[in-house]
Amino acid sequence: MDPRPIGVFDSGFGGLTVARALIDLLPKEALVYVGDTGRYPYGSKPLDDVSSYAHEITRWLIEEHDVKMVVVACNTASAAALDDLQSTYDRPIVGVIDHGVSSLLKVSRTRNVGVIGTVGTIGSGAYQTEVGKADGDARLVCAACPGFVEFVERGELASDQVRVLAQRLLSPIVDAKVDALLLGCTHYPFLARTISEVVGRDVVLVSSADETAFGVRTMLIENDTLREGEPVPPLFLSSGDVEEFERIGSMLLGPELKNVNRWTAPGSDQATSDQTE
Ligand code: DGL
Q: Bridge partners of 6?
């Protein structure tokens, strides 16, 4: 048994899908969630920058909250930094990529599968490597979908514009006739209807949030580190506008998202000016 919290982070709101799955599956666990909305989006940034953000947040979660585990609830950050984080810190660090891939391969009958994600995620080759490791015979087609995240942030989930963009970006997936498609970006589940209309309703859409939560539970059980006792409210922090985080976040996660605190990246100009005030 281990009463310490689990740290979860994402570039912003998208990782709340993973936080929701964790709250539902492991209601007794304490969560500390950092949404790095002040430096969002990660998907179009150089992977080295994303990796250094991931290190800053992970270090802070360990030093300030003594978290027993860190969940990197962001595909781009998992692609940029997961291996490095795992070899740097003395805590279990869980990403979303391997869990998403195992669920994708589980639902596919033909082993002809697709993954979509941000430019950073797809360009990193992380999904290509993970699918190759899990099933060397699987045929994988990947497509980066720049613009999808921005549509979700604007709440435009099924407009004509997003459909036209989806038709263009998803044409390699349609041409490859996959039978299962992994939504390899935290925001894409919100576009599931439009994506499904474009790729065809018989293609199974897979999101990594639930599978990641199951992976976390398995690890906590194996390490004998589940939390016992009364549930405690999750703690949410944002490096951007906290009121906006609370407003949008509560629509995505539900009523547990309240009393958002401000998070300042330890090395940032803001942190320096906070210290000198
Ligand atoms: N959280 C990012 C991901 O899953 C999407 C949003 C962003 O680009 O920061 O890749």
A: 31, 69
Is any ligand 1 atom within 6 A of the Cβ of residue 121? yes
Going by alpha carbons, the residue nearest to atom 6 of ligand 1 is 41
- Distance in Å, CA 11 to ligand 1 centroid: 6
Ligand 1 contact, 100 CB (< 6 A): no
For 212, phi then psi, to 5°, come to -65, -40
Give the whole-angstrom CA distance, residue 103 versus residue 106. 5
Residue recorded with tokens 């992976």: 215
Contacts of 262 (CB under 8 A, 6+ apart): 237, 238, 239, 242
185 counts as catalytic = yes
Give pTM, 2 decimals: 0.91
CATH architecture entry for 6-95+210-276? 3-Layer(aba) Sandwich (3.40)
Is 142 among the residues known to form the active site? no
For the chain, where do the domains classified as CATH 3.40.50.1860 start and end?
Answer: 6-95+210-276, 97-208
Q: From the candidates 6, 72, 165, 185, give the one annotated as an active-site residue.
A: 185
Q: Which residues pair with 235 in a beta bridge?
A: 32
Spatial CB neighbours of 54, under 8 Å, sequence gap ≥ 6? 9, 72, 77, 80, 81, 85
Both tokens of residue 80? 């940029």
Q: Which fold has domain 97-208?
A: Rossmann fold (3.40.50)
Mean per-residue pLDDT pooled into runs of 10, the chain (277 residues)? 97 92 96 95 95 97 98 96 97 95 95 97 96 96 96 86 97 98 92 96 93 95 96 95 91 89 80 44
